[in-house]
Sequence to fold (372 residues):
Amino acid sequence: MTTEPSQAMRPARAAQLQSIQALRAIAALLVVFGHAAHESETIAERIGLAPLHTSFLHSGGGVDIFFVISGFIMVHTSAGLFGQPGAWRTFLTRRIVRIVPLYWLLTSLLLIGSLFLPQLLNVPIGDWRHILASYLFLPSLRGGYEIRPVMALGWTLNLEMLFYLLFAAAMLLPLRRGMFALSCVLVALALIGAAFQPSQVQLAFWTQAIILEFLFGCLLALLYRQGFRLPAVAAAASVTLGLAALLKWPGVDDPSWLPQVLRLGLPAALIVGGAALYDGAAPRLVLPLAVVGDASYSLYLFHPFALRPLRDVWVRVVGTNLPLEVYMVVAVAVATLSAMLLYRLVERPLTIWFKRPSHRDGDTHRSIYPAA
Fold:
């Protein structure tokens, strides 16, 4: 039985959630930047310009931030449900309602588009088994060499769904025992992957060490629940250090030999920890970012639909008339604005419509994407 937060605690909690929403925006924008940079390379090759140097940033770190946020939010919003009858069912229903409709809609749109504009695809669509696996969030080989669904970005959702299932199972126990069991399972999976390096597709995918990033977020949420807070200086230092670790510094060797969970996962944990555990009001910069964060799931999933046509339009219409730096700004802006429209016109109405039967339960969960 949980108690309602006091009036004094509610503003702090609201500020903390705004900070998390702002981080969702930053994480999604990092991913968009990385993919826009990739498209700029294609543009440069087609029109004969020198490519941009965007390798200074580990833009893929946005995914790691999403995974840590996911672990944090799941514990933060569901801690009071642990050990309650039927809680696991309520949790999974909320997650499915929140994640599946938009993903299935865009996957279907991609499949239809591939029939008419196959040239926009980097990798051809697989057979019916691969398509079915994509809809069911099951890891499957795409193109015979990479474990990706029809929508390549959906690989993160395949890991998310595994985490949700494990989290739901942990909810059968009281919070402490459930979180201990969840921690043991996640660590065991990562150790199996590191020790045996399985070749079976699903097992290889589900035993990646990156799954430990969900655990990082869970542990941060437990610290938050215990009342642990960071003063402004410590919180700012944590976020700054984490962001600095996502940059590639001149003269400093890139530790590519480290597994991603250490190379990018730990910086992501520092960033999320600094924002989530900060003991104070959210900075003003957080507010506009939080608005983008609301649409971060749409932004994560939809931005390739915006970037790929924009690339071809840019080659045909703009060409060498404007530098590629302008393309990068336009690409990020177009992806962001289109995603915010998609959120308002499609994602949000879909979510409201699908959750109506269980509306009496309420829904404090918010998307983690994207993500997460």
Confidence is low (pLDDT under 50) at residues 1-12, 358-372. The radius of gyration is 21 Å. The longest strand covers residues 141-142.
